[in-house]
Specification:
about 45% strand, mainly beta, twelve-stranded mixed β-sheet
Length: about 230
């Protein structure tokens, strides 16, 4: 599958969907789509917008979230992951969370935990991948876009807080590789378009303080940043 970046954005007060087009003469346009490409057979409308014209939103209004609770292997001496789960990964299901847009501020308390998110499309197939950070128990930051056509087997992943690296690993050390992990999950519960599978986080996840800026990064996907408000909003 060709690598593509799918976005959700606000333009002139309206939330819309799009696909990032190739850069031409230092301009990277967004190709506007007719609908949500994760859940529908969306098609291009023929309209192009420049990135500077739009405000990026969470690329997905997520359905249920399936969260893997097992930790990454955390040392180079650890044996490589097998093609099937070495043990049945523990996971939990939760209802649709409140989506947090990239570069927005959340109230404390909040935490950081860099995760590769698998976005489920139609026919229970993988649509693509994005960065994820479950900032609070009922909210989820995703973004900056959903990327298709990449191999999730060995991507550099981590997080930074106020510019200081807190987590760094590779998806080669996931609790279980993506394909057998999804097979394990779907043996218990079906997955629907828009569902998100959070695949686990490297060691080093922790709490954020008021005023902190956190960035999650994943190779071939991008960076996802959010700030914690200096104090509770009133």
């Amino acid at each position: 599958m060709e690598r593509q970046r799918y976005v959700r954005f606000e333009h002139l007060g309206r939330a819309r969907f799009g696909r990032v087009a190739p850069t031409v003469d230092d301009v990277t346009p967004i190709e506007v789509l007719s609908d949500d490409p994760v859940r529908t057979d969306a098609s291009p409308t023929g309209e192009l917008l420049e990135m500077e014209e739009v405000h990026f939103l969470s690329p997905l209004l997520p359905g249920r979230v399936v969260a893997v609770r097992d930790a990454y292997a955390n040392a180079p001496s650890d044996p490589p992951r097998r093609t099937t789960p070495p043990c049945s990964p523990h996971f939990s299901l939760s209802p649709p969370p409140t989506p947090v847009n990239p570069h927005t501020t959340v109230d404390p308390p909040a935490r950081y935990a860099a995760e590769l998110a698998v976005v489920i499309g139609r026919d229970s197939r993988v649509f693509g991948y994005t960065c994820a950070n479950a900032l609070t128990p009922d909210s989820l930051s995703l973004g900056p876009w959903i990327v298709t056509g990449i191999d999730p087997a060995s991507l550099r992943i981590g997080s930074m807080v106020n510019g200081v690296r807190r987590q760094e690993s590779t998806t080669a050390r996931l609790p279980a590789p993506v394909a057998p992990l999804l097979a394990h999950i779907t043996a218990t519960t079906p997955l629907a378009p828009g569902d998100v599978v959070l695949t686990g986080t490297p060691t080093g996840a922790g709490e954020l303080a008021p005023g902190d800026w956190v960035t999650v990064f994943i190779e071939h996907i991008g960076t996802l940043g959010n700030k914690v408000s200096p104090s509770h909003s009133h």
